[in-house]
Design goal:
Blueprint (H helix, E strand, L loop, with lengths): L1 H12 L12 E7 L12 E7 L8 H4 L10 H16 L16 H22 L2
C-alpha cells in the first residue's frame, strides 16, 4: 500500500508544469494629442497610450507656487525685515515720505522692482519646455 502511494507521489511530481506565457516582443509608448485614439496593438505587442494635454506629473496648481513665508530661509526673512524697518524709519535711500532723506531712494527702489520683474519673467520662461 505504501509503495503504491509512493509511486503515485513520484509520478505526480513529474507532470509537466503549466505553460507560462512569454513576455511581449514589443512595447510601444504613444503620446496622444487631444482627440486622438489609442492605436490597436499588432500581434504580440503592448501599446501604452498617454495624453499630451497634461504632459507633466506635477499638477498645474502646484508647478509655480511661490515659497510660503514659513518655508523661506532665515536669510530671506531677515533681509525682508531689514528692508521693512528701513522704509518705515525713513532712512536715506528708502523712498519713504517719512523721515529725512527718504526720497533719495525712489529710483533705486524702481530699479530693484524692475530687476525682480525681469528675474521672474526669466524664471517663468525657463520653466516652459
Amino acid at each position: 500500500m505504501t509503495t503504491l502511494l509512493l509511486a503515485a507521489v513520484l509520478l505526480a511530481g513529474t507532470a509537466p508544469e503549466a505553460a507560462v506565457p512569454a513576455p511581449p516582443q514589443r512595447v510601444r509608448s504613444v503620446a496622444l494629442a487631444p482627440g486622438e485614439a489609442c492605436p490597436r496593438p499588432a500581434g504580440d505587442e503592448v501599446v501604452v497610450c498617454a495624453p499630451l494635454d497634461e504632459p507633466y506629473r506635477i499638477p498645474k496648481p502646484l508647478r509655480r507656487a511661490e515659497i510660503a513665508a514659513k518655508n523661506q530661509s532665515w536669510v530671506n526673512r531677515v533681509a525682508t525685515m531689514d528692508e521693512v524697518g528701513r522704509v518705515a524709519g525713513g532712512l536715506p535711500n528708502t523712498c519713504s515720505a517719512v523721515g529725512t532723506g527718504g526720497q533719495t531712494g525712489c529710483t533705486q527702489s524702481m530699479m530693484r522692482a524692475w530687476a525682480a520683474d525681469r528675474r521672474q519673467l526669466a524664471r517663468e520662461s525657463a520653466a516652459v519646455p
